[in-house]
Amino acid sequence: MMIKPIFLLLLVTMSSLAGCLGSVLPPSMDDSEARDSLVIAYEVKDDYENPDVNPQVLSDFLSAELDMDVTLYPIASEGAIIEALRFGHADIAFMDGAAAWMGWQQYGLGVLVADQKEDGRTYYEANAWVLNNSEMAEAYLDGDDSTDPFTLLQGKTSCHTGWLKSAGMLLPMGYLIGNGYATVQGNSDDIASLRDTITGFFNENASIPESGTPYYSYGGAIKCLSDGTGDVAFAKDSTVAKYCGNENASSNEDWCLGMERYVKLPAFGKAPSHPIMYNPSKMDSTKAAKITEALLSLNDSPKGQEILANVLNTPGLVETNTEDHLGSYGELVQNVPGISTYFNDKYGIKT
Questions:
Q1: pLDDT score recorded for residue 15
Q2: Which pLDDT does position 46 carry in this prediction?
């Protein structure tokens, strides 16, 4: 006769315990989703005298735009950036064109956006500059396709901006080698053979200046051409105008000739601006699109424009993709002997 009361008591007790246990169980992910995060690889200094140039302001801006926890991952080199993206220690990173190309080639890294040059482009063109009384200029301007100005460069004295500079060496030599004008001299896997290739195609007096010498960099290459030391200068498409084409003549360099004396041959190719890279194998397309939108929003507000100018040193960002931004550059520089091995060593990449 006591069985039913005892059974009812057990049911009540178990129901009470179930209620208590239910109150302490963690909520499901449907009730409370974890806040997403973004890690930016960036070269961070120990202290910033001017807070406006501190990349933390970029981190704070993106955190507000994305509603994510955004942090900076400090790095010390381009190689460290590649490794950070490769292993997922960072989600995005600002890189130079050469490092970005190697990261793409070796690990499939991708481009989200690229920064703009002063003129709004995301690249600059690499050109050969000659004087208007040269046979190269005459061949280019005569309207006859059978007279090739690049063929006439052989045996001339070349003015480069420096050793392994993009517009001053890598792009023009990649073009001349890839199109059969110049032949690689020496070991095709050794970057040192590029010097012999240059002097073999041009001549032994080729100017390959070191930093601090009179013919170094873009202005130095045009000076080398202007003062008669060389017959052709390799530089940017905008170089001559910068040094010799100012409205106020007193702003021009004292070695400049008249602007009509300089003839720009057809461009060898494009050197890409700094891209913002990510690892597609570590980030899905939805998150990548959201980050891209937030980065582009820097263009649209006074605060964002301050960050672009002070932190990123650019007037703006442009959405692009890996092939469009890095493809033409890679097609040329890969013709340079030993370039992949050189970049692998420079960036610490172990294949």
A1: 42
A2: 77
Distance of CA 315 to CAs 55, 272, 299, 302, Å?
16, 16, 8, 12
CATH class of 123-271: alpha beta
* Residue 228 CB neighbours (<10 A): 9
The Cα 317–Cα 305 span in angstroms is 10
Token digits of residue 90: 């960072």
Right CATH for 37-117+273-346 from 3.10.310.10, 3.40.50.720, 3.40.190.10, 3.30.460.10: 3.40.190.10
Segments of the chain scoring below 50 in pLDDT: 1-32
Burial annotation 58-93 (CB, 10 A radius, 16+ → b, else e):
bbebbbebbebebebbebeebbbbbbbbbeebbbbb
Q: What is the DSSP letter of 259?
A: G
Q: Which two tokens stand for residue 142?
A: 């005569």
Distance CA 282, CA 295 (A): 19
In this prediction the pTM is 0.85
Q: CATH 3.40.190.10 residue ranges in the chain?
A: 37-117+273-346, 123-271
